[in-house]
C-alpha cells in the first residue's frame, strides 16, 4: 500500500489517530533498526573498556577520537540524503550504510588491537550511520499518509530504542560468558548487524514511485543546483529548519544534564549509568503515545511542548528543590525526546516533496545536530567561566527565548492537507 | 506490505530469515564458545620461571606474561605469571590482573621472588600503575575507574597502599590529609595515582589531581599525611639514590601531550629528557643514570620498552620490543 503522502483528495477523511495498522515498511524498518542497534550498542558499551584496557589509550585520546568522528558524521549524512534522492535509491543507500556498519565490526575483529585498524573501523561505522539515517527516515515518511506519520515515527523510534537498551545487556552477557573476550563481542555484533541488513533487503520495499518517478526529473539534484538549496527554497521547510536549529542551539546536551544531576545528588559512580538508561526507557514508553498525540493535534504543539519539558528540567535543576525531586529530570528528558525526535521528522516530512525528502531531512538533521553541538560547547564554556548556576540560568533563558521565537516561526499547521499540497 | 508478495514468496522469505538466524546465531554461539574455551591466559607461572636471577623483568605484550630480558641479546626467559601491570623490587613481586566481568575489578597479587603467593587484594577499576618499594616491604597500585561517560566526565583513579610489615592496607588513599600551599585542602574530586617509595619505606611521592590541576605530593606513611610540592607532575618515579624524580609533564604540544622530565629534589630544578615522543607511563629507573618506559609498539606490537639517559643527554634506545612494565631486579 503505497499511499504516498500526496494528500490524495480521494483519501477518506479519517478521524485522527484512527485504529489503522502501522505500515509494514515502518515495522520492517523498526525491526532493522532494533537489530542494528543491538549490534552497534554492544560495541559502544564495551569500547571505552576495550580501548583503555586493551590498547592503553588514555581517556583524553579516547574522547578526542570519539568527538572527531561524531563531527564528520554530519557531512556524510548530507551526502547520504542526496544520494538517496537521486533516482529514489533510498533502500539501496540505507542498505549500504547498514552493511558498512556491520562490516566495521569485522574490521574491529581483524584489527586485533592495532590502533589504525580500530580507528578505521570506528570511522566506517560512523560513516555507515551517517549515510543511512536520512534515507531511512525518508522511507518511513513515504510509507503512509501524512496524518499517521507521528505514530509511524513513534513506532520506529520505540523499536530503535529497544535495540539500544538490549545491546549493552547482550555485550555484558557475552563478556561474562567468555571471561572478557572483547573479540567475541565484536563477532556477535557482526552477525547481528548482518541479520539487520538481511531484514532490510528482504522486508523493506523500495521507495514508492513518487520518490523518483516521472513526476520528478530523472536525477533532479545533480547539476548546478545543490540539493540543499532546492530544499531550502521552500519557505515552510525553512521555517522548520530555523526553529529546530534555534531550539537545538539552546540545548545543553545530555551528558552535561546528567553531570548536573550527579553533582546535585552526589550520585555514586556506579549508579551514574542508570540516568541515561532511565531516560531511554521513558523514551521507549512515550514515543508511540507522543506520536499519536502529534497526529491528533498537529506536530507543532508536541514539538514545542517537548522543549518546554526540557526547560522544566533546567528549572528543576536550578531551583532549590528536595533531592528526590531531581528524579523527574530523566522523566522530563524522556518526554523531551519522545515529543521532539520522531515528531520533528513527521513535521518536516510532508512539507518536502517525495523526491527531495531524504535530502531535506538530512539538511534538517544536520542543522539540528550542529546547533546542538554549538549549544553544548557554549554551555561547557559558560560552565567553566561563570560556574554551574549562572551557566544553567543562561541556558534556561536562551531556551525560553528560543521557544518564544519558534512559536512564531513554525507554520501553524503544516500537516493540513492544503499545506502539503502546496509544498508539493 | 508488498501486494505482489504472494504466499509462497512470503514463506520463502521467512525461511530465508530463519536460515540466516540459525546460521548467524550458530556462528555467534560458536565464536563465544570458542572464546570461552580459550579462556584466561595461564594465570600461574611455569614452574621453571622465577625472579631469583637479576635482570630486566617486564610484561611480554604478546603473551601478557612476565618475562626476563637477557642483557646479552639472547632469547628472553618466558613463562612468568600473567599480569596487566607488573613491578618487582627487593623480595616482592606485584602483579595486577583484571578480573573478568563488568564492572571491572583489579586483583593485586603479591608474590615472592619464587612466585609464591603472599597476599591478594581486589579493588574496583582496571589495572593502571604498580610499584614496590626498594626493600619490597611497601607496595602501591592504582586502578582506573571507568564509567559510561568516560570522555565527558574525565576519569577517576583509586590508589591503594599495602604495608607488608604490619599488614596495613589502605584500599583508597583519597582521604589522606592533604596540604596545598601550606593550607589544609578539602575537595571531593581529589584523585591520586602513580606512587613511588623512598628507601626508608615511609616517605613516598605521588600525583594528586584536583580541579583540573595535577600536583606532586610528598607523603608520610607513618603520620598519614601528604603535602603538595609542585604543579604539573604526573607519575613520579624516585631514582635508586633517592635524589631525583622522573615524571611526565603535560606539554603544550597536543600531538605529544606528555613529556618525560627529571626533577632534582635538592634544588627542585627540572630538565627534559631526550625522549621527544609522548610517554604515558610511570618511568622505571634501570640504574641511577637511566630510565625505562613503555611506548606504543612499532610493527603491530602493542608496546615497546625504551630507555633514555636521565641527565637529558643522549637519545632513546629501543630496549625490549613487545614489552611493558619494566622492572630492574638485582
TrEMBL record, chain A:
PROSITE patterns, sorted: MFS, SUGAR_TRANSPORT_1
Swiss-Prot/TrEMBL keywords: Membrane, Transmembrane, Transmembrane helix
Pfam family, one: MFS_1
Chain ranges passing through the membrane: 161-179, 185-204, 240-261, 267-289, 301-321, 327-348, 369-386, 392-410
Keyword Transmembrane helix appears in the UniProt entry: yes
CDD domains per the UniProt record, alphabetical: MFS_MJ1317_like (cd17370)
InterPro entries, per the entry: MFS, MFS_dom, MFS_trans_sf, Sugar_transporter_CS
Membrane topology: Multi-pass membrane protein
This protein's record includes keyword RNA-binding: no
Ranges for domain Major facilitator superfamily (MFS) profile: 25-414
UniProt-annotated location(s): Cell membrane
SUPFAM superfamilies: MFS general substrate transporter
Molecular function terms, GO-annotated: transmembrane transporter activity
Record's GO cellular component terms: plasma membrane
Record-linked PANTHER family: C-METHYLTRANSFERASE, MAJOR FACILITATOR SUPERFAMILY TRANSPORTER
Descriptive protein name: MFS transporter
Originating organism: Streptomyces roseus
